[in-house]
Request: fold
Amino acid sequence: MLDLAFVRANLAQVKERLALRSEVAAAALDGFDALDRERRAAIAQSEALQAERNRASAEVAAMRQKGEDASERMDRIRQMKGEMERCAEQASAAEQRMQALLQQVPNLPAEDVPVGATADDNVEVRRSGAPRAFDFAPKPHWELGEALGILDFERAAKISGARFAVYWDLGARLERALANFMLDMHTGKHGYREVLPPVLVNEASLFGTGQLPKFAEDLFRCEGSDHWLIPTAEVPVTNLFRDEILDQKQLPISLTAYTPCFRAEAGSHGKDVRGLIRQHQFQKVELVKFTLPEDSAAEHEALTGHAEAILQALGLPYRVMALCTGDMGFSAAKTYDLEVWLPGQNTFREISSCSNFESFQARRANIRYRPAASKKPEFVHTLNGSGLAIGRTWLAILENYQQADGSIQIPEQLQPYMGGETVIRR
Reply:
């Protein structure tokens, strides 16, 4: 959430920055100025009443010393007390409405984010790895997986419905191998601390990371309770330190978690209906950082590099895209998307999104640190990224490592996690 005092003092500039996202984002602050004027007017009236009350109290004291009747003045003082209470209520109500309005306002894009309206305006930063040259027509992962008997959409639909998958045999083991490989690399090489959080969270947690109240339709809720299924481990891991004050010496804190993730995929009907790209349930390894404000830009680059290292180790070609202002998520100040090459679909597809949220989430979740040179706590900066989405890595391996006979060569880095298996065959 944006800082109320900052928005109040810089409303025109804030709306200008939000307009780089979209006119809708800028319009989210419509009414803020009127509420602020209402609040200021109530405060000014309260202050005027307080001054009048002080004068009246002094007059009452003087009249009593002279033995004069001060009852009329006393009545006015009591009346002013009620009027001041009403002014305070009006100012508080306006402040609360301003805070509620800010809950719907996205983060301001960082200064170096490319300006644009849609994904077409995203900017390629770099590429790694060359797409493999096939001497046969490569197939998409859904054909490969079903032909090998390791991927089953029909039975998944029977037990759960559309946008679910069942993995069999070495397909299931490959999913597990990927999770273990990623966690081992992030903890052993990149210095992250592993955590296994709950996958059911409360509304306060989803508010803290920015999913609620605006994106409730994208989530699954347990009816009759304050339990929601997480869309990503970002939610429980970020909220581990909600309402806490961290010591500056603790920062940066780097955490990694493997969890299932659940998304309603509202509004995506007819989009990515084939295969594993857009599922209601999928598994993911998440990277989360809590940093000092002055370090968050560098930590963002480092986190993105840690996600890239998984793709590099697996030999998967990819590109890094800097998202434009109009394509970034609600809470992000800056985002890099990693897009893996899928030869069976002849396209790049997102496999990780790495974002710097600056103080936006920390303000919503009240996560602060105490600077060494100051007694006043300040908000940390939070960052996260997929390191990586397991299902999309799984399908990328199938498409990039497929052989002419339909078998799948297992990347060398994963073979120790696959019990020494080197190939997936029917």
